[in-house]
Amino acid sequence: MVTISNDSSVKDNRRVYSPISLRGTDCKINSQVSLAGLTSFRVGGPAEWYVAPRSMEALQASFAWAHDEGVPVTLLGAGSNLLVSDRGLSGLVVGTRYLKQVNFNAETGQLTAGAGESIPRLAWLAAKRGWKGLEWAVGIPGTVGGAVVMNAGAHRGCTADILVNARVLSPGGKVEILTPQELEYRYRTSVLQGGDRLVTEATFQLQPGFDRSQVMAETNDHFSQRRTTQPYHLPSCGSVFRNPGPKTAGWFIEQAGLKGYQIGGAQVAQRHANFILNCGSATANDIFQVIRHVQQQVEQRWSLLLEPEVRILGEFPF
Ligand SMILES: Cc1cc2nc3c(=O)[nH]c(=O)nc-3n(C[C@H](O)[C@H](O)[C@H](O)COP(=O)(O)OP(=O)(O)OC[C@H]3O[C@@H](n4cnc5c(N)ncnc54)[C@H](O)[C@@H]3O)c2cc1C
Questions:
Q1: Active-site residue, 239 included
Q2: Looking at the structure, do residues 83 and 106 belong to the same domain, yes or no?
Q3: 309 catalytic residue (yes or no)
Q4: Within this chain, do residues 145 and 211 fall inside the same structural domain, yes or no?
Q5: Which percentage of the chain shows pLDDT scores above 70?
Q6: Cα separation, 102 vs 123, whole angstroms
Q7: 318 is a domain residue
Q8: Which of 65, 95, 125 is the last residue of a domain?
């Protein structure tokens, strides 16, 4: 059984409306915006409504609009851990792509960045300064907000290790500063996952004062290692399933003989069995069916239900 993490249903009416201007801001809400171009799988139908605010005021106005209209809100970072239904999503999708600012504080060694900042970009910026702490993040193609919510991690490092706090906005307009303890971090998850509170900014504790070329070399090592062991040449969401431990999800999938298994345009990667690739023509449903098949095969053989790490949003046929 795959968890559907958004229970909103799509209205029959697929009408395209003129953009709606949010009063007092430079922000517009558009209707029927394709999410395929906003997610790394490159599949999925449209958002009924979509907005990408550039300021806190615009963000608050967007939440207020959704509240007044009585529509659900879905939060979107770089879309690198999402499988969106071919039928799209009802309600308002709030994208963080323009919520960007970066501040390196040399006195405290802290890096504060907006929700929409790219995590790999921050890893390179830190390395160029000789600041250690983010080398592990260089191959994770998400945003600050997505990393905080997912507790993104790699190469034995993760967001929880370096997060000082995250600034979070609730749909009602309440701003909270949450510590890692309050975020209840566990493996690839936090208390914010699946909720409607939006991370607007996060502060990370790094270690300044190292030799730049050394930090750059370590960052580059991680980058090269990933490029050789993981298939970055086709659209995917990275690892599809959480590692059940002590063996990896990829080990079970490979042992089940599922490498190369394909439905439509969706294929279990040959290079890394925990990746499902969009070989060019995949639909979200193709990917979903591959996920289900993998789960069924692994469960039949080991009585183990692999749990998706990818967030599955919208309606899928069972
Ligand atoms: C090629 C590839 C390799 C990858 N490798 C790794 C890896 O090594 N380690 C790893 O951990 N992950 C990996 N991932 C998965 C993904 O990059 C991470 O989970 C990433 O942290 C997701 O960030 P995002 O901005 O894309 O979030 P999205 O995919 O947009 O969203 C993920 C979840 O976070 C929520 N969210 C996003 N932004 C916010 C916000 N500002 N406030 C509140 N909620 C928000 C969304 O609603 C959703 O529930 C990989 C993905 C790809 C495509």
A1: yes
A2: no
A3: yes
A4: yes
A5: 96
A6: 12
A7: no
A8: 95
Is the full-model pTM beyond 0.70? yes
Query: In the listed set 206, 227, 248, which residue is the last one of a domain according to the structure?
Result: 227
For the chain, the domain total comes to: 3
Which of 118, 236, 239, 311 is an active site residue? Answer: 239
pLDDT digits (tens, 9 = 90+) for 140-155: 999 999 999 999 999 9
CATH number at residue 76: 3.30.43.10
Give the range of the structural domain holding residue 29, as residue numbers without chain letter: 20-95
Question: What is the CA(142)–ligand 1 centre distance, in A?
Answer: 5
270-282 residue pLDDT tens: 999 999 999 999 9
